[in-house]
Specification:
Helix content: 40-55%
Distance between the termini: 58 Å
Strand order of the largest sheet: 3-2-1-12-13-7
Radius of gyration: 26 Å
Shape: elongated
Bound molecules: ligand ME8
Strand content: 5-15%
Structural class: alpha/beta
Number of helices: 19
Largest sheet: 6 strands, parallel
Length: 526
């Protein structure tokens, strides 16, 4: 029998600033995948959270004259508020300062040490302060941090090392035998060519100079360096090494860790090695997505950008709805690749997809039901070959959409649903109920057309609910659907006979693009 549990994670975010649209990317995509799986009947655990230790956080708090926790609490509250505005349905929000996490990380570090995989030595090399990453000379690109391109400093200090080199062969084998471990495939090739083929070096996993972190229990001068603390959140959140490991037993190994491409190395080389040392199974899949690119750069808080480059996602949510932001992030950037953001692209996508397709279908269809049938749906219908073909096409597209989400291709899954909307609009256009209405005895034909068009609409909207959870549920409620369930084996079989609907205002009103661009530019430059 198919395992119906599904564990999906975002990275834990650095609360080093307010969250940008770039940070919303991973979270929105994971949320859509999580919601879709819930609707398919999976028992889903969707984890997100914040990565709160390290020098960078301590520096920011002190620059603001705040205690670390005071600063962190503010940013975390702000992040949770943003996730709620975006309708993010996480099951757990982990903070690495949470007591249970601190306790478990301490035990994990001890365990790695007892297994003989951690030893003390001198670290000499380069360190990127903003990324909190240690690098060897060879890894630098033009003398700068290979991840963010900024200057690095010399590091020379006593610390504990993790024997990453010991796991080199096992990890190489993992890449040879499991082609789905790291996706897209290009990222796996990158890891093999840039890191594995050059040989793995032991990794510095504690620091003496950083005080804002979890202390090493057996050597209080040292704090656990960020990656062992951060990566293990995926298991401590489930209660690993706590009194209650039931969630861990139920959901580990994770079905997928979704992460940005710049942290693939940590997740696909270091994390498996830590798990191997702990004797735990590896996550089933790691997916390294691309970046949302804004004026040629990564729209991220860790990259200082000019004032008018950073667009607060709240502005977009307030003006255009959270669905508008989700539509752009899911639909316009192919999952796995980089994609540009601009005001114009965002607004065109709103009009092209949300106003013209998604919103238009329900308002015009409900309008026709009101006009031709006093708002009542009847099953006095006589389907023809046209209806049969319509249902078959929808069935195929629904199947595609489900298949694509299971393959972790949310952009393609979303596009398949939008094709159902196109089919419905096309079906109505071809059947022309407004002309049938003029024919004598056309009532039954109109009832048939509208009945099937509603079936199509409901198929599309139940699938869309995972992607656009703010608005489409309003229409589903009109048709008596409160809790969305996707039935993989049925199609166009909703019980709608006798339902009465009333006219609705369009879910997404068309925008005047030029006017909106002007407004957004004004806001960004204020
Ligand atoms: O890396 N486009 O945290 P973080 C797409 N704490 N994704 C973007 C983006 C953009 N423009 N800007 C940021 C960390 N992100 C660590 C993770 S996990 C054990 C520790 C994404 O806050 C980025 O790619 O810097 C990453 O997946 C996420 O935001 C968190 O980034």
């Amino acid at each position: 029998m198919e395992n119906k549990n599904f564990y999906i994670t975002t990275p834990i975010y650095y609360p080093s600033n307010k969250f940008t649209l770039g940070n919303c990317y991973t979270t929105v995509l994971c949320d859509a995948i999580a919601r879709f799986h819930r609707a398919l009947g999976y028992d889903v655990f969707f984890l997100t959270g914040t990565d709160e230790h390290g020098q960078k956080i301590a520096k920011i708090a002190s620059a603001k004259n705040m205690k670390e926790m005071q600063y962190l609490n503010e940013i975390v509250a702000d992040a949770k508020d943003l996730w709620s505005l975006l309708n993010i349905s996480y099951d757990k929000f982990i903070r690495t300062t949470d007591d249970y996490h601190v306790k478990a990380v301490t035990k994990i570090f001890n365990k790695l040490y007892q297994n003989g995989d951690i030893y003390k030595s001198i670290y000499k090399g380069k360190y990127c302060v903003p990324c909190e990453s240690f690098w060897s000379e060879e890894q630098l690109v033009d003398g700068k941090c290979p991840d963010c391109g900024r200057d690095v400093i010399d590091a020379n200090e006593e610390c504990y090392f993790f024997k990453l080199s010991k796991y080199e062969d096992k990890i190489k084998k993992l890449y040879q035998t499991n082609k789905n471990f790291l996706l897209p495939e290009s990222r796996a090739n990158e890891m093999i060519n840039n890191f594995l083929s050059k040989g793995l070096k032991d990794l510095c996993v504690s620091r003496k100079t950083v005080k804002w972190g979890i202390p090493v229990e057996f050597d209080k001068d040292q704090t656990i360096y960020v990656w062992v603390d951060a990566l293990t959140n995926y298991i401590t959140a489930l209660g690993y090494l706590s009194e209650d490991e039931s969630l861990f037993k139920k959901f580990w190994p994770a079905d997928v860790h979704v992460i940005g491409k710049e942290i693939v190395r940590f997740h696909s080389i270091i994390w498996p090695a830590i798990l191997m040392s702990l004797g735990l199974p590896l996550p089933k899949m790691i997916f390294g997505h691309g970046w949302l690119i804004f004026n040629g750069g990564k729209l991220s808080k860790s990259k200082e950008s000019g004032k008018n480059e950073v667009l607060d996602p709240r502005i977009l949510i307030e003006r255009y709805s959270s669905d508008a932001v989700r539509n752009f992030l899911i639909g316009e950037i192919s999952f796995g690749q980089d994609g540009p953001y601009s005001q114009e692209l965002f607004l065109n996508s709103f009009n092209g997809i949300l106003a013209n397709k998604v919103g238009n279908l329900s308002s015009r269809l409900i309008g026709m039901i009101c006009k031709y049938q006093n708002g009542i749906i009847t099953n006095k219908i006589s389907p023809t070959e046209q209806e049969q073909n319509f249902v078959n096409t929808i069935k195929q597209l629904k199947c595609d959409s489900i298949q694509k989400i299971k393959e972790l291709k949310p952009t393609l899954s979303y596009k398949s649903v939008l094709k159902i909307i196109d089919e419905c609009n096309g079906y109505i256009d071809n059947c022309k109920p407004w002309e049938v209405a003029k024919q004598e005895g056309g009532e039954e034909r109109i009832a048939t057309i509208l009945y099937f068009a509603v079936q199509g609409l409901l198929e599309a909207y139940t699938l869309l609910d995972a992607f656009l959870p703010e608005k489409v549920c309003q229409v589903l409620k009109l048709f008596g659907i409160d809790k969305v369930k996707i039935d993989e084996n049925a199609c166009c079989n909703f019980k709608i006979d006798g339902i009465k609907v009333e006219k609705i205002t369009p879910l997404f009103a068309r925008l005047d693009i030029n006017k909106e661009i002007e407004e957004l530019d004004k806001i960004a430059n204020d």
